[in-house]
Amino acid sequence: MNNTRLRLLRGKGMAIVLALVLVAAACGDDEDEPAATTTATAAAQETTTTVPEQPATTAAEEMDEPEEAPPTTEAMEEVVEKPVIVASLADTPNLIELHTFRTTSAYAVTNAVYEPLIKQVLEEQPNGLLQGSFVDHHGAGAESFDITETADGGYLATFTIRQGQTFSDGTPVTASDYKYVFDRSIEGPGYIGLLLPFVGISSTDQIRVTGDYTFEVETTVQSPLFRRFLTFQVFGAMNKAEAEANATEDDPWSFAYYNDKGGGSGPYWVSKFDPDNEVVLEPNPGYWNADALPNAGVIIRPIPDANEKARLIAAGEIDVATGIPPKLLAVLAEDPNVTIWASQTTGVHYLAMNQTIAPMDNLHLRQAIVSAVPYQALIDNVMFGFASPASGVVTSNMETHDASIGANFSQNLDAARAHLEASGVGDITLVLGVRESRLGDQEAAVLIQDALRQIGLTVDVQILPDGDFSGRINANELPLFIHDWFSWGEDPFYQMKFLTTCGQFVNYARFCNEAYDALVAEGTFTTDPAVRQDVSSQAQQIFLDQAVWAPLWSSDRTYVTHKCVTGVVQDYTRIPVFTEMSKVPGC
Amino acid sequence: MWRYLGRRLLVSVVTVAGIVVVVFFIMRVLPGDAAAVRAGPYASEEKLEQIRDQFGLNDPVPVQFVNYVRDAVGGDLGTSIRTGGEVTEELLIRLPASLELAFYAVLLAVLAGVPVGVAAAARRDTWTDRVARVVAVLGSSMAFFWLGLILTFVFFFKLGWFPGPVGRLGIVTQPPETVTGFFTVDAALARDWALMWEAFTYLALPAVTVGFVLSAPIIKIVRSSMIETLDSEYVRTARAVGVSRRQVLFRDGFRNALVPVTTAIGIIFGYMLGGNIIVELIFAWPGVGRYAYEALRVNDLEALQGFVIVVGLLYIVLNVVIDFVYSWIDPRIKLGQKVVA
């Protein structure tokens, strides 16, 4: 009897709980109230406006006054709705602090948020790709600029900032905001300060505000990289007032504050930053060229699985994707709904040989490895043709590359065996480390392992978590490993300096040669093309003779877009650019 | 019951302390240098030291441990070296996504597994039983990632019946106002039925992927428990005195089989609490499993520690809930009392 009552009570209890849940559900928002959910289109489509269709900025246009041509009556009639671009990039944005090293997709976010002083002029290629010019630049945050040589052998650059442009909170952009970003680069805890000496800037005194909207930068050297540096997002205006308001004693440059916030005056502002889920970029109404933006914003959704990302592109669920493995690119190339935008770059994937670890201190052994690597097979079977031969630290697509020297980086197993015999190295097993996140590197390691087996070398391929890999190469614990690099600005001497000169922290092969360093130093601050070519060739010959690396390939920069997407840009940095991206109406 | 709860709370505190100690020291012996990952390629030794100082990685391990425990007691699980954000906050943001997926996956597994298991036991050695066993074997042997990829290929890409694997909601949809963190529930509370439906459609494929695989052990356990019960003497006696087959099956057989089944469901749900990394990666599900995976890749120690501790805490809570469920299913089980045979 008691048990029966207990059961009845339990049943009643359950019924009451269920009823309460239903009542709670029924007592939700009043129907008259706006729904808590809006669509995306909320963020993006509410701001969607109908505007005359505008072509991408090209070299033919006037650079400093892009908004000067008013739309014609005909153009006003032919209106199109600006689309929202949905992107899934190579990785997950982790943080968006401008001067902290971050993931590639995080750089894409900041690229959209911060406006540099100048930009590359875009030249439309036959396939529709907008290629940034290596020669011509136009004003961006700066309305005009002038760079002259100083008597001391440096440059004096003067800038006039555009009036009327604002940060996304409405604060006007002034010269002080640009000085602030330079000062922050030089004195803040970020990594940019390490790069500035390359263009002869090391003190905040070299950045001088001369008026509300004018300032100047004086360098101590004449570096061909100077103009290119000025196009980088890391020198985009930062909202000085906001940054200073959020500074603390421990964090005087507000690095922590900007981990998940944008503080720029660029074309977009970050309306949502949910790193593993979604980042939403909305147009900044105070951007100087806001009317020319051909889209109504960007939504970045990280899709970790490359196969799913490929399917989403094909189905039109996302508009643009990066980080698709070459094997999948080859498959997607057959899909009529997909466009693959591939362009050669100056980046390098390389097999490094750490010369501080025996037996890699043996020159003949290194030469044997360099001669044994199956370079073309790697391009064909790992990169599926989406790469070109690297052929040296100054890669085949880079200015001053010496093709006669680069040609020596080809597989020659007989030469490899001869070098191995000369090395006197006996029966050894070499450890080849690759990163867990790099599938292509792992596939390349297997082909390299097979090639080295053919000349009598045993290789143990170790796939390591990225953190472990980084720790080991820094601690000189990996004799052989595959790494990669891309130099923003694509300058050969910058590339040689960082990757292969004595004591550089990213010279993971620990190669050190005084003659080589002297050549690199000479070329770095030389603007004469003939001299640059000559010293570069000499340095490339030393690099070959010393068998510093086996330069495996220069991977293409690839964007995969739905067929309707236009306005894909390639600039100095390989970071995705959204400012020209749109969709063909009615496609 | 209060005595039971008190004792359980004490045991839980000891368990959590054990988890914290073990996890902390295991993380310290993991190879790798998180500072190098954070610093990126432009990592001078000076910069690396600066990052190690900032995140306390240069302190002696006992000092790190004391600092960590002190902060953890206050709810501060540290700062992620990958994102620069607070680990507690980042986990709490992602936890509802994993819990919602786990809840519906386990619900599906139970709704499918229990009837199939009961039917198989009731019709032993018939085609029903054979089909159930084949389903159980398929579920046990099928990898999450394979099933997930096949389901998205067929039902999203080929047939277009379900949305693509882009997370919890469509790319252009705003989530409901957070009440529980379960989008399906929050949308219902906001009386936004379209949004609730959308949340269900995005949940469907990952939940079916996990639910199908999880239904296999439930089918097996329900079937074997039911068979054992149906073969028992008291059931035979009941049948002999004329109790109907249906009554025997559900009142005696199923009720008695529920205790081991509950145990199995508890274990499965506990396993799912940690988030299913593979499924979260395939379906771009923004849960704690994906967070832990990203942290593991770059040796983000505090994020990993936080993840393990939070999952451990949830597991403890789950076990207490299961104990209550036991006593509800079988009134002979009294919480906090020894069972007298």
Gross morphology of chain A is globular
Number of helices of chain B: 14
Q: Give the terminus-to-terminus CA distance of chain A.
A: 73 Å
The portion of residues assigned to helices of chain B is over 70%
Classify the beta-strand content of chain B into a percent band: under 5%
User: Spans of chain A of 5+ residues with little confidence (pLDDT < 50)?
Assistant: 1-78
Overall pLDDT metric of chain A: 86
Q: Give the structural class of chain A.
A: alpha+beta
**Main beta sheet of chain B: strand number and arrangement?**
none
Mean pLDDT of chain B: 86
Number of strands of chain B: 0
Q: Return Rg of chain B in Å.
A: 24 Å
Could you characterize the architecture of this molecule?
The complex is a heterodimer of chains A (about 575) and B (about 350). In chain A, about 30% of the residues lie in helices and about 20% in strands. Chain A is built from 18 helices and 24 strands. A 7-stranded mixed sheet of chain A has the order 10-11-12-3-13-21-14, sandwiched between helices. Chain A has a 6-stranded mixed sheet with strand order 16-20-15-19-17-18. In chain A, helix 16 runs antiparallel to helix 17. The N terminus of chain A is likely disordered. Chain B is mostly helical and about 350 residues long. The mean pLDDT of chain B is about 85. At the A-B interface, helix 1, helix 2, helix 8 and helix 15 of A face helix 2, helix 3, helix 7, helix 8 and helix 13 of B.
Quick synopsis:
The complex is a heterodimer of chains A (587) and B (341). Chain A has 18 helices and 24 strands.
Please give a handful of descriptors for the protein shown.
heterodimer; A: 587 residues; alpha+beta; 7-stranded mixed sheet; 6-stranded mixed sheet; 24 strands; 30% helix; disordered N terminus; B: 341 residues; mainly alpha; 14 helices; 0% strand; globular
Annotate the secondary structure layout.
The complex is a heterodimer of chains A (587) and B (341).
Chain A: H1 2-26, H2 41-45, E1 50-52, H3 73-77, E2 79-81, E3 85-88, H4 104-113, E4 118-124, E5 130-139, E6 142-149, E7 155-161, H5 175-187, E8 207-211, E9 214-218, H6 226-230, H7 240-245, E10 268-274, E11 278-283, E12 298-300, H8 306-314, E13 320-321, H9 326-332, E14 338-343, E15 348-353, H10 363-372, H11 375-381, E16 387-388, H12 403-406, H13 413-423, E17 429-435, H14 439-454, E18 458-464, H15 466-474, E19 480-485, H16 492-500, H17 514-524, H18 529-545, E20 549-555, E21 557-562, E22 565-566, E23 569-570, E24 582-583
Parallel strand pairs in A: 3-12, 3-13, 5-23, 17-18, 17-19
Antiparallel strand pairs in A: 1-2, 4-5, 6-7, 7-9, 8-9, 10-11, 11-12, 13-21, 14-21, 15-19, 15-20, 16-20, 22-24
Chain B: H1 2-29, H2 34-39, H3 45-54, H4 61-73, H5 87-122, H6 127-141, H7 144-158, H8 183-189, H9 193-230, H10 233-240, H11 245-273, H12 277-282, H13 288-297, H14 301-329
Helix pairs in contact in B: 1-14, 5-6, 5-9, 5-11, 6-9, 7-9, 8-9, 9-11, 11-14, 13-14
